[in-house]
Amino acid sequence: MRMLPAVMKLSTRITGLTGGGSDGWDVFYKARQMIADGIKVTELTIGEHDIRTDPAILDAMAQSARGGHTGYAMVPGIGALRDKVAERISAQSGVPTTRDNILITPGGQAALFAAHHAVCDEGDTALFIDPYYATYPGTLRAVGARPQAVHTDPINGFQPRATDIAPYAAAATSLLINSPNNPTGAVYTPETMQDIAQVSVAHDLWLISDEVYDTQVWRGRHISPRSLPSMSERTLVVGSMSKSHAMTGSRCGWVCGPADVINHLITLATHTTYGVPGFIQDATLFALDAGPELEERIAEPFRRRRAMTLEALANQNVVKSVPPDGAMYIMLDIRATGLSGEEFANALLDTHQIAVMPGESFGQAAAGHIRVALTIDDAAFVRALDTLIGFAHSLA
């Protein structure tokens, strides 16, 4: 008798990354399938710039590759790039920083994974703020930690307070924050950062600060918690070129932290990613050397479309928002329609072929909201926004 092949068992860690449910991106996948089927869809879903990587950066990348920088690069990152990132962080935060504090990683996502590997043991509780970027819980599960969301409220502008965090802090090892925030656009105030620092010190938490939107601040100012008293030794900062320089596909980011932590993370990189391609790093160095003018030019369309959105919302009261102070998104409150964020997003896609992300994709704190990415040209964006608002009014 012919034996059937055995069904091999996969690890519980890999099969449980999404916690046994959906990863929350069903509307996005549905929109992409519609596009593949030849249906024209207006995508306001992911944080992908409508302006692509600057040709001068691509030229630097090509020149480096043709010049031979295609072999194995130094695992921690090339020295000149680590120096440049350290210089950038020193100028921004006021905290002395050297290459010993920097590990170059294949994008911000790899940096988040590495940072949590550095501080979390199997079974440790790792806190993160809700609403959150969709990969956060899975990243924490991937390192063996137990993810615990800390709920924030739109009434408070989605700013986490000490009273929100403290009930979970005693049993936790780490806290992950993101300012400017994806998906809400909240830029954490000095008071919020002081609350976060106070709880972190009081409960001996590692703080992991995702600062990939640090060049997209429309109101207030970006504060890195590493700059606060007693925080530099317990803070790991995650940065990336994806949003600041429209280099999403280049996959270049970094972790900044205490030198002894970075030494251990270099060992982790040696056993996992084995570094970032040299020609990508050379292009990254070229982009950073271009200075803040390039960063401002890349950020400007999102500032402009934020203003357009707030103007469109001003003369009606069905679709509401907490005005975003940063990042390339706006979170819209559509609860007046009687639909959940997921129901509204699906109905909008089916009826008008406009794709947005349900707030529920980013946690329960954003239930009844949708996230709109400010990532298509102005004229198309205004048309889509007017249609979205009109559709909400028809439901309400």
UniProtKB/TrEMBL annotation:
Signal peptide: none
Keyword Transferase: yes
Cofactor: pyridoxal 5'-phosphate
Name assigned to this protein: aspartate transaminase
BP GO annotations: amino acid metabolic process
EC numbers, comma separated: 2.6.1.1
A Pfam family that the UniProt record links to this protein: Aminotran_1_2
CDD domains linked to this entry: AAT_like (cd00609)
Natural source organism: Cognatiyoonia koreensis
Domain of life of the source: Bacteria
The family this protein is said to belong to: Belongs to the class-I pyridoxal-phosphate-dependent aminotransferase family.
Keyword Transferase assigned: yes
InterPro entries reported in the protein's UniProt record: Aminotransferase_I/II_large, AspAT/PAT-like, PyrdxlP-dep_Trfase, PyrdxlP-dep_Trfase_major
Record's catalysed reaction(s): L-aspartate + 2-oxoglutarate = oxaloacetate + L-glutamate
One function term, GO molecular function aspect: pyridoxal phosphate binding
Domain named Aminotransferase class I/classII large: residues: 40-386
Keywords: Aminotransferase, Pyridoxal phosphate, Pyruvate, Transferase
